[in-house]
From TrEMBL:
Organism expressing this protein natively: Streptosporangium canum
Protein's recorded name: Peptidoglycan/LPS O-acetylase OafA/YrhL, contains acyltransferase and SGNH-hydrolase domains
Acyltransferase domain span: 20-374
Gene Ontology CC terms, in alphabetical order: membrane
Organismal lineage: Bacteria, Bacillati, Actinomycetota, Actinomycetes, Streptosporangiales
GO MF terms held by the record: acyltransferase activity, transferring groups other than amino-acyl groups; hydrolase activity
Length: 419
């Protein structure tokens, strides 16, 4: 029987030197997103409206990504190894879910937001779905767009030697979010061509980053492309910039913890993100109304701060284990929820005891399948990725870390895929 608690002080308590408190946060985030999607279809009376469960979970994910991903790249000091690990971490289960959704189309039609042309293929290959204003095969795939933008931008900053200015970028993207909310009400880069152009640049750029040929130029092009798409191609430009600000807030917190930065940029950027939708023309949804938005942000921030404060204490093992399977859980649950709805009918009209039973059964199935995909898809591919990253490359010496002298952080092997 595994222990019910895992000591957060031991970085080896979980696989690959992961930090238990970060896994616990990911577990909480995944459960919050799952409940946000489950409750309206199964038990709508229990859905909270004083804050948004889904956005709360997503903000927690983004804070964790910001906290660990740049330090992971810096700890490796190797752009090639970083991107190989990202590819083998992100794509296997992502592609499996995409294929499953297409297979389930015989019973559940593919979402209307997904174009029926090659632009959808290109956007799914790059994961830049939301920033080229295209819907994903699974509803939750939209957040991966901002994870990918963050990775591309952080890579460019690392290559340029600007990666330590996290607070500046947090405040900068917060200011962009406010301005974008005031002046932009729709994507300026319209039509399918952003998906096609970004697809070509992404594939060529990835070849350069991994092979070492023209690596620096590729990093700059991909980083610049990601920012342009974020601001001018997103469905909701202010939200895209706000998400990047949140991720850099997570990085700035890490800098403060390491003694290389202050907390004032965190405070300023937080205020800007909170204000971004207040005067925005694209803020008609209930979850971005000031009271709900402020509360959601405050809860996400408090959760992250609380977990960080307790990082040296023992944490509930079930939360940490949920964190381990959170990527699978995050991607699998929505397609399965749509399939369950088509098979079971309108659960909302059923008796409360039936609603509770079906909800519990659905959660058990999703958790079980997520454990299987983690065990038999994610873990083997991560191991393969680590082996591939050690293969020699003619471009290995093409980029020496501009942050020479930065000692690898013991937590840098923590692999955070998404929100």
């Amino acid at each position: 029987m595994p222990p019910t608690v895992i000591d957060a002080r031991s970085s080896t308590a979980t696989p690959a030197g992961r930090l238990a408190w970060l896994d616990a946060l990911r577990g909480l985030g995944a459960v919050a997103v799952l409940l946000e999607h489950l409750l309206p279809w199964f038990m709508p009376a229990l859905r909270p409206y004083w804050f948004n469960l889904g956005m709360y979970g997503v903000l927690v994910f983004f804070l964790v990504s910001g906290y660990i991903i740049p330090v992971s790249l810096e700890g490796r000091g190797d752009v090639r190894a970083f991107w190989i690990s990202r590819i083998f971490r992100l794509y296997p289960i992502y592609l499996l879910v995409a294929a499953s959704v297409l297979l389930m189309a015989f019973w559940t039609p593919v979402r209307e937001q997904v174009p029926r042309d090659l632009s959808a293929v290109s956007a799914h290959v790059t994961m830049l779905l939301d920033v080229v204003h295209l819907g994903g095969l699974a509803d939750t795939m939209w957040t991966l767009s901002y994870e990918m933008v963050f990775y591309l931008l952080v890579t460019a900053l690392f290559v340029r030697g600007l990666h330590h200015r996290s607070g500046t970028f947090a405040v900068g993207f917060g200011a962009v979010a406010v301005v974008a909310g005031l002046v932009l009400s729709a994507p300026l880069l319209k039509g399918p061509w952003p998906a096609y152009v970004s697809g070509v640049l992404f594939l060529v750029g990835m070849v350069c980053l991994i092979s070492g040929r023209f690596r620096t130029a590729a990093a700059y092009v991909l980083g610049g492309m990601s920012v342009v798409l974020l601001i001018f191609g997103s469905f909701v430009p202010w939200l895209g910039a706000a998400i990047l600000a949140v991720m850099f807030i997570g990085t700035a917190v890490r800098r403060w913890e390491q003694g290389t930065g202050g907390l004032w940029p965190v405070a300023v950027a937080t205020v800007l993100v909170a204000l971004a939708p207040v005067w925005s023309g694209q803020a008609g949804w209930w979850w971005v109304q000031p009271g709900v938005w402020f509360t959601t942000m405050a809860l996400a921030g408090a959760t992250f701060a609380g977990a960080m404060a307790l990082r040296r204490r023992r944490l509930p093992g079930f939360l940490v284990r949920l964190g381990l399977i959170s990527y699978s859980l995050y991607l699998l649950h929505h397609p399965l929820l749509r399939l369950a709805n088509s098979l079971l009918g309108d659960v909302r009209s059923m008796q409360p005891v039936v609603q509770v039973s079906l909800s519990a059964g659905f959660v058990a199935v999703v958790v079980g399948l997520s454990w299987l995909t983690y065990r038999y898809v994610e873990l083997p591919m991560q191991r393969l990725g680590r082996r591939v990253a050690h293969w020699p490359s003619e471009g290995d010496s093409a980029l020496s870390a501009p942050s020479a002298g930065v000692s690898p952080d013991k937590s840098s092997s923590f692999s955070l895929p998404t929100g």
